[in-house]
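Re-run with default settings, no changes from the original entry. Doing this only to confirm the output is reproducible before filing.
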Amino acid sequence: MDSMNSNSFRLLASFILISSFFSSPCHGDGAMFHHLQASHSLGINDAGRHGVIFLENGRSVVLHNADSEGNPSLILAAKRTKRIDPLDHFKHYTGGWNISNRHYFASVGLTAAPLFVISALWFMGFGIYLLIICLRHYCSQRQHYAYAKKSNALFLSFLVLFTTATISMESVGCVVLYTGQGKFHRSTTNTLNYIVKRSDTTVDNLKNVSYYLSTAKQLEVDKYFIAPDVQSNIDKIQIKINDSATFLDKKTNDNSDAIHYVLDSVQLSLIIIAAVMLILALTGFFVSVLNLQLLVFILATIGWIIVAGTFILCGVFLLLHNATADTCVAMKEWVKNPTAHTALDDILPCVDNTTAQETLSESKDVTFQLVDVVNQFITNVSNQNLPPQAGPSVSYNQTGPLVPVLCNPYQPNKIPRDCKAGEVDFRNATQVWKNYVCQVSAGICTTPGRLTPKFYNQMSIAVNVSTALYHYGPFLVDLQDCSFVRKTFTNITGDHCPGLRLYSEWIFIGLTLVSSAVLLSLIIWMLYTRPRNGKEYIRRYADMPSRDSRELQKGMQK
């Protein structure tokens, strides 16, 4: 449960309130997605300063302060995150954006320290004040102040005036808070849904590639099929692809459920806070005017605790606002300097470069082999005029024009190849070959043609699988150089980050206004109830003998 809460908080802080989860690193040769292995091996304290890996000429190079060629390591959002670090003797934090680094969170948390201090001072100060009033009420046998009717009317006027001002201030704060939390929730949900959609698309494409590779392994045209060593390679790469797709799918769904739960809880909490604060201010005003002393004291106690908690919440949202802005800056910088391993792996991991290369290479190899299988059948069987004695598998009375061979998009060394004259490509092969299909009886052509319906269907399936693998090539290239993550982060920084930063600021402003308004209201209530107590005391002893009354008034004036 603790792990789930930790994951939810981090991914939430990274997107927003999105995106930031602590994810356990994958180990083993079959792990397809990168994680912060360097951070874990070096320790949390150094996670923000070391372990950055660059993609250089297709190689993954682990860097500390610099690599063997003197290239500096990448620190995300270095300027923005240069803040005082209370965990490092109040020195400046220089590790950049890194949600796995406690020094980073400590430095961000310090930006909200003034609000935490205000909350603590308010809680202690007003708490002591309430305690003193309580002790004076129950322990003192006489009142020390008395006010005339004019003075009491003046206090009532001030109460109405200041309460109206604070309620207006609180109403504005509630509107800003309610509007901000609604827009923030929608913006955060849209960002999350976008990331989940991109992740789901990657998972679906990986599963499709795995499916087509599996289908290719089982395909045959007549007696021709792909080479056994290629079939063995398909089995190996399928294990990696399926494990990776399963991992990413599970991680995405788990993170999505956790974040949606947190977002819904935050939205409900903010709505309740806005409503309770407004009701508290209105109720406190009326009970103070009616001099319901016990209710005033109860409401003041409730408000005392709520205001302290709301100021803490203000600090949390200020921290969140700064962390969100840091994340957006980090994404923007990462897009310009894409790396294999950074703290952004906790949001959306890149695919392991080696596995992506193997998958791309295998898809090209299988595509080449399938085309070669089809062409071998066309060259050695359908375009041959063999006697019936050769057997029905190769001689089925095929006649007529020769069937054009299929254009192979790759050379044997897997580099691109241009089609030659007389070849058909993936786009029109099945349509062209229809013209060469004959009618059959007992597997023998009874009309001119060189392809039986059975052979045509087998060739069509081979073409469809080859076409699919060929068109998944760009997707696999994107996996190899992490382009799909770069595109995702580019869209987030351009389309989602402005809204996340703006609406988190709205929530902070709304909470601050509401907290300040209720704080002022509590002070006004408590100040107003004191003169009313003095007046009630005078009324209580109005019928006393004049001498005792005069002595009592003299005592109250001391």
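The chain has a mean pLDDT of 75. The first helix runs from residue 2 to 15.
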